[in-house]
Design a protein that fits this description.
The complex is a heterodimer of chains A (about 80) and B (about 280).
Chain A lengths: L2 H20 L3 H21 L3 H24 L8
Chain B lengths: L1 H20 L10 H18 L4 H9 L1 H22 L9 E6 L4 E6 L11 E4 L8 H23 L8 H18 L2 H7 L2 H24 L11 H4 L3 H32 L9
Antiparallel strand pairs in B: 1-2, 1-3
Classes of the chains: A mainly alpha (about 80), B mainly alpha (about 280).
């Protein structure tokens, strides 16, 4: 695998992770968490763990984002802290 | 306080990184896992279970107990969500919206007033109602059956390609959730009711544990699928492959039901009336 691509994906993972915990908008945090999961899925695939990548794509990027959005829909969209 | 928290997090993060450096490098042939554990599976798994995908063979056969208790963890998560969120005292909402289907007029009904009871002309719609979107509904209606077929393929083809019960179950659940999002929660509850979802949660775990119990009834260890060869009428190696498929189906059913059930409870805050 080309190491430059791995590095870029890894940097995006770190940025998404930091942004997801620092952003005030909860819906934005849910979307960023989905992006984080998708990039992690790419990393698993790069490392050859295709089954884990598949699980990450379905659970992390797919259903858990929907569940987060559903939970945000029932609370306020902005955090207070 | 916040500074102290940051210092503690950095300290333990550094400790983690420091200890991670002691791990053998990625893909090191001299690592303990590569010298003792992996060769055994790589050399024997296909001849012992006739499953080309090693991950599935290890997950559902050699490490069958782990996967069973993972399924039970997911089942418990579904039950915990039910206990925490579900609201059983059903209060009629103060105002309700109905659409009169022949004319398309929306009616707002307040308090005790009701629409004619057995009338087929009215359809209840959500208070946070978004206008009827033909493009979204039609697209989702076209996608849902295909994603369900794909989910069944992922479950059944887990022996030969990446996939298996967990992934297939999640895709199956996601297609039901997609239907609920694109239409509404009430229609989805008509298709898969809460009772059915909870029953399926239990049924999946029951299939998994029952397969293991069946093995003990034939005189082998718990979850030793080669004992099923008499029941299925095949040789012990193929019986292990079929046993893996049986437990994968159980996992898929359980995961699908839990995902759907979690969505129902989260989207409607446990009231199961209207949601996202």
């Amino acid at each position: 695998m080309i190491w430059q691509i791995e590095l870029i994906v890894l940097i995006i993972v770190v940025i998404c992770g930091l942004a997801a915990i620092s952003i005030k908008d909860l819906l934005g945090a849910a979307v960023l968490f989905g992006a984080y999961s998708f990039m992690m899925c790419l990393l698993w695939a790069i490392m050859g763990a295709v089954d884990v990548a598949f699980t990450e794509a379905t659970v992390g990027a797919g259903v858990s984002t929907v569940l987060f959005v559903a939970a945000v829909f029932r609370t306020t969209r902005r955090t207070r802290d | 306080m916040k500074k102290l928290a940051i210092v503690i997090v950095l300290m333990f993060g550094g400790l983690l990184f420091y200890s991670a450096l002691e791990f053998p490098p990625w893909g090191d042939p001299q690592a303990p896992a590569s010298t003792h554990v992996s060769p055994r599976y790589i050399e024997q798994a296909v001849s012992e279970t006739s499953v080309p995908n090693l991950v599935t063979a290890v997950l559902a056969d050699y490490r069958g107990y782990d996967t069973m208790f993972e399924t039970i963890v997911i089942f418990s998560a579904g039950v915990a969500c039910l206990l925490l969120l579900r609201v059983y005292r059903r209060e009629e909402m103060e105002t309700r919206l109905y659409r009169h289907l022949p004319t398309g007029i929306t009616l707002r009904v307040k308090g005790e007033r009701k629409i004619p009871k057995d009338s087929q002309d009215f359809e209840q719609i959500d208070l946070t109602w978004v206008p009827y979107d033909l493009a979204v509904k039609t697209t989702c209606r076209m996608i849902v059956p295909f994603s369900m077929i794909f989910a069944l393929y992922v479950i059944a083809h887990g022996h030969h390609s990446p996939g298996g019960g967990f992934q297939g179950g999640v895709i199956l659940g996601a297609s039901v959730i997609l239907y609920a999002i694109s239409h509404n929660l009430r229609l989805s509850l008509l298709r898969i009711s809460e009772r059915l979802a909870v029953l399926l949660c239990g049924l999946g775990v029951f299939i998994y544990a029952g397969t293991g119990l069946l093995c003990t009834l034939y005189g082998a260890n718990y979850l030793d699928y080669s004992a099923l060869s008499q029941l299925l009428g095949v040789d012990p190696v193929t019986a292990r492959s079929h046993g893996i498929l049986m437990v994968e189906i159980g996992v898929g059913i359980s995961v699908m039901a839990v995902m759907v059930h979690l969505y129902y409870n989260l989207a409607s805050a446990g009231r199961h009336d209207e949601g996202l």
